[in-house]
Amino acid sequence: MPAVNPTRRRMALLAVAGICCGLAGCRDRGVTSYRIPKEPDAEAATAPEAAAAGAPEIRWTAPDGWQPQAASAMRQGSYLVPGAAGAAADVSIVSFPGTGGDDLANINRWRDQLKLTPVTAAEVAGQVQSVPGAVGQFILADLEGAVSERGAARILGAWLRQPDRVWFFKMMGPSDLVGAQKDAFIALLQSVRMAEGQAGGPPLAQAGQPPANTNDLPRGGLAPRPPLAPPAAGGAGMNSIPVRSEGGVSLVWKAPADWQTLAGSAMRKASYGVGGAEVAITAFPGDVGGVLANVNRWRGQAGLEPVDEKGLGEATAPIESNGLHFLLVDAEGGSAPVVAALLPWNGATWFFKLTGPADAVARAKPSFISFLKTVRAP
Amino acid sequence: MRKYIPIGALLLALAWVASTLAPQRSPGPFDLAAFGRLPVLADGRIKPMDTIARTGLLMLQGRQRLEAAGGRALAPEEWLLDVFFRPEVADAYRIFRIDNPDVLSLFGLGSGDSAGQVRFSFAQLQAGLPELDRQAQMAGPVEAPERTAFQRSVLELREHLEYYSRLKYSLGTPDGFDLSAVLGDRRLLAAGRPGFEAMATYSLLRAVPPSAPSARPDEWRSLGQALLEAVSTGAVGPQVRSYAALGKAWRGSQPEAFNTALASSGSEISSRFAPVARRCSLEALFNRAEPFYTSLVLYVAAFLLAVVSWLKWPAELGRAASWLMALAFLLATGGIITRMWLEGRPPVTNLYSSALFIGWGAVALCLVLERINRNAVASSAGSLIGFGTLVIAHNLSLSGDTLEMMRAVLDSNFWLSTHVVTVTTGYASTFLAGFLATIYIARGVFTRTLDRATADSLARMVYGIVCFATLFSFVGTVLGGIWADQSWGRFWGWDPKENGALVIVLWNAVILHCRWGGLVRQRGLMCLAVFGNVVTAWSWFGTNMLGVGLHSYGFTSAAFQGLVAFVAIQLVVIGVAAIPVDKWRSSAAARTP
Amino acid sequence: MPPSRPHPLAILTSLRLTVVLLVLSIVLVFAATLDQVHLGVWGVQEKYFRSFFVFRRVPGTGFLFPIFPGGYLLGGVLIVNLAAAHLNRFRLSWGKSGIWLTHIGLVLLLAGEGLSGMLQKDNQMRIDVGQTRRYSESFRETELAVTETTRPGYDQVVAIPAARLTDGATVQHPLLPFLVKPVSYFPNAMLRLRSQVADPPPSVATAGQGTDIVATPIPETAKQDESNWPAAYVELVGPEGPLGTFLVSTLMEQPEAFKYGGRSWRIALRARRDYLPFAITLVKFTHDVYPGTDIPRDFASTIRLRSDDGRDNREVRIFMNNPLRYAGRAFYQAGYANNDRTTVLQVVRNPSWRIPYVSCALIVLGLAAQFAIHLSAFFRRRPGAPAGIPAGAAAGAAPRTVSRPAP
User: Fold this and answer.
1) Which residues numbered 35-64 in A keep a CB inside 8 Å of some CB on C?
2) CA B549 to chain CA centroid, nearest Å
3) Are B281 and B7 within 8 A, CB to CB?
4) Is C2 contained in some domain?
5) Structural domain contains residue A68
6) Helix axes B76-85, B238-251, angle to 10 degrees
7) Å from B549 to nearest chain A CA?
8) B39: Cβ contacts below 8 Å, ≥ 6 apart
9) C144 and C102 share a domain?
């Protein structure tokens, strides 16, 4: 027979203990009161008669092509600026109460994001420029550096100080895209207006995302996504450094019948042999250092003295054809003559270069110039 | 004659194992082995190019073998070199595995010329890429557990294509331009800036080591970043030149130039980063040796020998089976220890290594059991579990590098080596009890070999293993609770994985209590132990598929189907055991158990 | 043993009951795990584990029907069964000391978990870099805080738990010169400016910012990456009549301020706060990742801890797997936000946190003792042990004596 009584007694005790624990678990629904020291950062919305509460609103006009993104608890405005081949730049507009750090701190924060070394206070002035806008003076910095974790290599940042807060406008992305959008960015700054006198209403927090958990891997989307297929290069089967042209189009031309097509190389769009001379066609994005630099480069290759801005007009000759504006550089007379044309087109610079022994170049030159006139945009 | 069978089998196996471990000579004039040993930083870890090549191929096409047009087998390094430096050639290799018919129809593939193909080349997919992109953008925002098979396939294919693209940007650009041509001229270098920026942004690898020898892994830079620095400073580092020379030599099919560039690069790295170079050499050797594949084959052989030994020549074949199993065990041990050394971590860090360890633990227990019982039962169970877990591990390795970095919350070698190892041992022993029980049922119902002695020995083994499993599962679960208390502030949070471990402990306790109370006898014990397989499979994999909780790894339909199939098989085994005992074929040979 | 009806209380000591309870527990845990996909971890804890029964709503009515025993019931009966069976069957002896220790440890573990379920309080602290906080906030509970700000040295807060707002009963408190009358309470609501809503309904609020806002109740969410934003309309009524109906919501950044009776007041709906006898300032937050990936290597918050009585003023680094234990609470690095500018610390107060450690130590001791006892008996009994007894058999607890034959 199992011993009943000791068990029963203990059972009862345990049951009573269980009930007590259960009751203790009931939620406490009492009202509590306590005293706390004054909290400096809690600002109340005053009664409607008083001044408008909360952050002043600003309004701006976003340039065409900028895709608005959802504002978050941090950002008043957010845009994605698409470029070709999947590149994108990110634009953010945020504001902080107070002074938001001095100019040096801001510059160095952005320099740090681009993996650039910080500058000293004395160097700050050289890094920034002043942009006047309707609401005040913007301080603008254009920083170009190494590629950061998020794939950006250039930051265009501007800030506007107001008595009680600072506004930051920042564009971050690949160098050329940001460079191409610089004017649009400045136009944005100049379009900023304060929304005063309008009852913006009480500030409502954005029901944004809750904070990230340290146990989880971050949600995807931080790494920049590569373009799956490289942009179609111009010319059939020729390799080139990717030239960003809209929709992958390229210039087309018609080479004279007596020009031999030479084997392409990784750098060239096309190569032709003309008697003993050679014609090479290449293209690079951007302005490749500018007209003067390229002219002097060719002059240097040809063994001629470099020219300055004033001498540029004499060293070059413009050629207009099919709506394209070539700049012809005739660097003959040196040890290795170069006759070349420079053509800025569609965000890139095209180079057409004729080189070779002096007599071959001289013989091929008229053919070269008439060849240039066959070049046209598709 | 018969008595030479065990030693003969062992020698044969040893010879084969030795052949897999011998360093291979590179086929052809290019020193691919040296290229495979080059260290690069990827996924937060410094690893050899060989790992990049093999895991890349595994991820994209589910296997490492690759054939060029014409049937020639390509070494993984050859494929990788083509991706880096001859992308137009690499685009023709059929490496993207696509099974989903709807995805195939996106590209216009899967019927006509390409009917029956499962692997496709980048060139074949190129036309359909914009449409894939569109579909991926629509599928992306859908929550992971709610995606359809099509959406999952689309996103997976896009991920693979992005991986492939990023490989192309690692040491060059996808249009394959010749880096060595621009290195000499500073202006040309400057003109290449957008290409270098693209390389720096999208590169998968960081191939350029830092200039100071004792720097941290953070200081490794991608080739694009190094080139951007060269643009601004004008100085081109030696590693950059080496890679440029390597590329030029590969493109131009110049073995001597290739080998020279490799030799100079390799000697520079081994002089400045000797420990890194050693580790990468070992890892490259480890990849090539594929010890787990060798073990897998040995386990199959051991299993067959063990099963045959129940019918004929029990002593000799049984010994051969246990020796082969022991050899496979040694090999797996070596593999696990190598992984531990490479990673600097305890043996179990992710799902892949848990599969390896479960196999290892079960086989270890079986070696002990076989020593005690010597009836080839433990050998068969151990080799079967070893084989099964290695197959599971292989399937888990298809998603990327298995030597991955531990996220911050798991970054505690103490808890990884105590809690995780103990719990995994608990899983292994519960599976072992289940498999031993399956052998009992199979032999009892279908053969005459379950005599009294075997039945009793099996029952003792199962009981003993269940005790062992209870202890380890319980201790492991408790250690997990303590870790959770140290990390997240609460001992027990009813997380799905925690619940799974708890259910294993509870089920093992049920088995023991039923046994102690006489509520079940041998057959009942076996059925309960087989159900333990279901419980453990749920805890190991099922909890990961829910997509919630702290251990969620996401839902893969292939794994889910595998789990359902496994559970169904166990239930069938239990059903078979429910056949009345007098109908068992062994009931004549034994008294009713 | 003559067949007779076992004494009803003897059932409590039976092994069969143990097996039944264990199986029921397995079913409960499995069902709860599956349901977690829908309910989230908190919902599942409330429904399955911190309850005596699992209820199901009878369709069409509001009646809740118990369909399965819940965690407290199963755990409680398990403890009773374990204690009863143990006391019934095992004499206190050295030979059984291992089993005693093990079972005491087990009972302690279960009881400790039950206690934790009732006593543990989890809060969080969200601190921006440079900010100082002296309170922690509840994850899910909200309160209506009526604060008097007239005095220069301190503020007097009266905190009314949101649970009191749901039943509509008026709240009267000696420190408040007016009654707080809840008009309506929404567990989750969407707020929009009146000017941005087409055809807005007439405003329920008669004073404060609420007059410009339209509050629309929306269904509560249990997803982990979404939060609920409760809102309520409360009417303040003084002796001479109502002061006005205010809209309060956790989405409103600033409290409503008003004056009454010569004193200044603020009213707000906010997460329930527990004020601490110390202040925490976030000095720095670091988020290290492995190079080239976004896999986190470590999260660390460097904070300055200043107690009100001046005794403690030091910097502490809280990082993953390394909490700060101070003042009966543990502070864990739980989350981060705002582009690594805000840290989220989890604050856990659990007076019974040591119980699992004690009970585990007891169980391990007990199992080891039992194993040692068996091993020594094994070696003493027979020098050449019969083949076939696996080492593992001795590792577990001793088999219990069977009180009746198994059918």
Assistant:
1) 35-39, 41-48, 53-54
2) 24
3) no
4) no
5) yes
6) 100
7) 10
8) B46, B47, B48, B49, B209, B269, B273, B276, B277, B279, B280
9) no
Model confidence, pTM: 0.75
Q: What is the CATH number of the domain that holds A289?
A: 3.40.1000.10
Q: What is the band of B283 on the pLDDT scale with cuts at 50, 70, 90?
A: very high
CATH number of the domain that residue A69 is part of:
2.60.120.1690
With beta carbons less than 8 A apart as the criterion, state whether C329 and C347 touch.
yes
Residue A271 belongs to what domain range? 246-372
- Angle at alpha carbon of residue A287, lines to A281 and A288, rounded to 5°: 70
d(CA C32, CA C45): 8
Question: What is the tally of structural domains in chain A?
Answer: 2
Domain stop point among A194, A228, A257: A194
* Dihedral angle sign, alpha carbons of residues C203, C209, C214, C218: negative
Q: How far is CA B99 from the centre of its chain?
A: 21
**Residues C254-292: tens digit of each pLDDT:** 888 888 888 999 999 999 999 999 999 999 999 988 887
* Other C-beta atoms lying within 10 Å of the C-beta of residue A319: 16
User: Which has the closest alpha carbon to C73: C2, C125, C20?
Assistant: C20
For residues C198 and C298, state if they share a domain.
Answer: yes
Q: Are residues C260 and C337 in the same domain?
A: yes
The verdict on residue A190 lying in a domain is: yes
Give the integer Cα–Cα distance in Å for A231 and B178.
18
Q: What is the pLDDT of residue A245?
A: 37
User: Are the C-beta atoms of B203 and B222 separated by less than 8 Å?
Assistant: yes
Task: Measure the CA–CA gap between C367 and C100, rounded to whole angstroms.
Answer: 10
Q: How many CB pairs under 8 A join A and C?
A: 176
What's the domain count of chain C? 2
| Same domain? C183 vs C269 | yes
A218 is a domain residue: no
Claim to verify: residue C320 and residue C386 sit in the same structural domain: no
Contact B190 A224 (CB under 8 A): no
User: How far B178 CA sits from the closest chain A CA (Å)?
Assistant: 6
* C-alpha pair distances (Å), B283 with each of B11, B289, B530, B536, C41: 27, 10, 39, 32, 42
Is C17 inside any structural domain?
A: yes
**Per the domain annotation, does A100 fall within a domain?**
yes
pLDDT tens-digit series, residues A156-191: 899 888 777 788 899 988 888 888 888 889 888 888
End-to-end CA separation in angstroms for chain B: 38
User: Could you say which residues from 281 to 310 on chain A have a Cβ atom under 8 Å away from some Cβ of chain B?
Assistant: 284-286, 288-289, 293, 297
Nearest CA in chain C to B200: C292
Q: Is C120 part of the contact surface with chain B (CB cutoff 8 Å)?
A: yes
Q: How many Å lie between the alpha carbon of A184 and the closest alpha carbon of chain B? A: 21
HEC readout, chain C = CCCCCCCHHHHHHCHHHHHHHHHHHHHHHHHHHHHHHHHHHHHHHHHHHCCCEEEEECCCCCCEEEEEECHHHHHHHHHHHHHHHHHHHCCCCHHHHHHHHHHHHHHHHHHHHHHHHHHCEEEEEEEECCCEEEEEEEEEEEEEEEEECCCCCEEEEEEEECHHHHCCCCECCCCCCCEEEEEEEECCEEEEEHHHCCCCCCCCCCCHHHHHEEEEECCCCCCCCCCCCCEEEEEEEECCEEEEEEEEECCECCCEEEEECCEEEEEEEEEEEEEEEEEEEEEEEEEEECCCCCCEEEEEEEEEEEECCCCCEEEEEEECCECEEECCEEEEEEEEECCCCEEEEEEEECCCCCHHHHHHHHHHHHHHHHHHHHHHHHHHHCCCCCCCCCHHHHHCCCCCCCCCCCC
Domain that holds residue C288: 122-349
ipTM value > 0.90: no
**Packed helices B76-85 and B149-168: angle between N→C axes, nearest 10 degrees:** 70
CB C146 within 8 A of CB C265: yes
